[in-house]
Amino acid sequence: MSYTVKEHTYTASEQKSFHTDKLTLLGLLGTGISHEINTPSQFIGDNLRFVQSSLNDLFKIPRELIKTTETYLEAHPDKALADQIKAIKDKAGLDFLEEEIQQAVEDSLQGLERVSTMVHAISEYSYNPRETNIKRAFNMNRLLENALNITTNEWKYNVTIEKDLDPSLPAFACDQKEIQLAFLHLILNAADAIKAHPTNKGAGTISLQTEYDEGFVTLKIKDNGIGIPEDSFDKIFLTSFTTKDCLEQSGHGLPIVYFSIIEQHQGTIEFSSTVNEGSLFTIKIPISKVATNTK
Asked: Residue 11 gets which letter from DSSP?
């Protein structure tokens, strides 16, 4: 028996439920992948640190043997044996090997640290429906660093990141994932604006500054990208508007920023922009009383 599915229009509530289910699944997948990456990374790191700490002892053995042999030859000259020892030293290249192996181990440890940082950032983006709309105290600098880690592949090859982050910045009440998503879109937009610049060949600078200002934590994000035409200023936060190829982007980046900062966190957004010179977005979010579990 066969059945032809009939057309059906879902209600807004049903569509929202579908969206939540998709985010939940993505969150579960992200958490699972993070765990599977983190576990082998830990024991690989432990093994590499053991190798690193053992290298000095390992290379000490042939050095001591050669030193002992040379001391013996000083007391008992033997040209044939001396030439043989020199040939062995030259062929082995102990100095070169020690330096290169140490560097290889150090590079591997740095790579694992990068993986660990990325896994941590991904896990913090994992969606937990039980935490939706719950505001806790977070540090803006940390959320910004996570957004940078997540978006690294979009800017690391040709964009310089300049940071001036206030280390004494107080925590503020926020829905962590919504704020991180807003920061992520701001960084991606800045990187895209630099790539789209007609003369800089995709290279440029994104400047990030945080500060505290009379009850508000503030983020200023500046780029030297293509800029925004003045006649588009009143359109950039509309979901239907985009300056990018419609096949590449949905145009939802800045509307998401607007929704998170202004509607969900009662913050403010100001921006200035000049075509072919760049843009500056200033985000201000009020600090309010929350639980003390600051992150």
From this structure: P
